[in-house]
Specification:
alpha/beta; TIM Barrel; 2 domains; 8-stranded parallel sheet; 4-stranded antiparallel sheet
Length: about 350
């Protein structure tokens, strides 16, 4: 079987001013690019935006180009709107005793956990992602009743405060209860494949969903036997999964994708994905990047522990922003928000002139 064609936007420019016809806008956001890296049949070549006519005769290339350049519609979720024309921060709020980074900090105290979430929203997070089950390698599966007891009281408090909430879970029962408690988005590291009812729950609720790649989501997400080309393999898996979820009744514009940094991937795999992030705009969905405090940072910095990985987390967040990622899922909210605002200032200046 011949590998399908892929397009990766490259050769980004500071401003489109004076470059009509020479550059294309990435996903309706604040970045413009001047060429594609075309990946086809194991070969790579560069095609400038000024020479796309012949490439666009290929139906797949034309479809990918349309997805790459199409604006991502904002999501209106109750009184809140989540925009994708600029990068935003999703704050991690773990209510587990055993998370790899901050396990136990907010366990067994819903009021304190919710207060922490409100504080992160006040610091600039657009979304609070509440999780009640650790998905680190080797973590045990949490009984649904325990996960519900951890998550629901926190979601209820956050929703009453007017905070936009997502719930990080693989379980259909937890999804249903969290949505009833006021959560607006489902974030599933198993891409709705761990629980047979999960897709139906999301489709019936009509809520947005984050689909994350992992090599074996039904078995926990950290297995797998390697990749031929990790960048295109992950893209193809997500493309197939999006099609299945749309066929199951979820509107495509309500799907967010996550390449799954650290899930069943080696250090070199993770680095390749981060270097090639712009490829994923060809899926036509907003991209969430979850690289905060991940193991790869320690591997590149003398085995720094999870709570000493701020510098690396910010470096990866900025890498994502420069690739047009719309959502950054992070632990260190205030620092990341500040980095985003400085980046935005640089972009605004570039767009109005030098």
């Amino acid at each position: 079987m011949v590998d399908p064609l892929h397009l990766r936007p490259v050769q980004f420019v500071d401003t489109p001013v004076g470059r009509d016809g020479e550059v294309a806008r990435l996903a309706g956001g604040m970045l413009w690019f001047a060429a594609y890296e075309v990946i086809e049949a194991g070969e790579r070549r560069t095609v400038p935006v000024t020479a796309l006519d012949r490439l666009m005769q290929d139906d797949r290339a034309a479809r990918l180009h349309a997805r790459i350049t199409a604006p991502r519609p904002a999501l209106t979720l109750g009184a809140r709107t989540l925009r994708f024309d600029q990068p935003s921060v999703a704050a991690i709020l773990n209510v587990t005793p055993d998370s790899f980074s901050d396990g136990g900090t907010h366990a067994d105290d819903p009021a304190t956990a919710a207060s922490a979430g409100v504080a992160m929203a006040a610091a600039g997070a657009a979304l609070i992602d509440v999780g009640g089950e650790s998905t680190r390698p080797g973590a045990p599966v949490v009984w649904e009743g325990d996960e519900l007891a951890r998550v629901v009281p926190v979601v209820e408090r956050l929703a009453r405060s007017g905070t936009l909430v997502s719930v990080d879970t693989r379980k259909a029962g937890v999804m249903e209860a969290a949505l009833a408690a006021g959560a607006a988005i489902i974030n599933d590291v198993a891409a709705l494949l761990w629980d047979d009812r999960a897709l139906d729950v999301v489709a019936r609720a009509g809520c947005p969903v984050v689909l994350m790649h992992s090599p074996d989501p039904a078995a926990g997400g950290h297995g797998g036997s390697g990749y031929g080309n990790v960048l295109t393999d992950v893209f193809d898996w997500l493309e197939t999964r999006i099609d299945a979820v749309v066929a199951g009744g979820v509107a495509r514009y309500r799907i967010i994708v996550d390449p799954g940094i650290g899930f069943g991937k080696s250090l070199s795999d993770n680095l390749a994905l981060l270097n090639g992030l712009t490829l994923f705009h060809g899926l036509g969905c907003p991209i969430l990047l979850g690289a905060s405090r991940k193991r790869m940072i320690g591997a590149l910095s003398n085995e720094a522990p999870a709570d000493a990985r701020l510098g690396g987390s910010l470096a990866l967040a900025l890498k994502g922003i420069e690739a047009g990622v719309q959502l950054l899922r992070v632990h260190d909210v205030a620092e990341t928000v500040q980095a985003v605002r400085v980046w935005r200032g640089l972009r605004d200046q570039a767009l109005v002139g030098r």
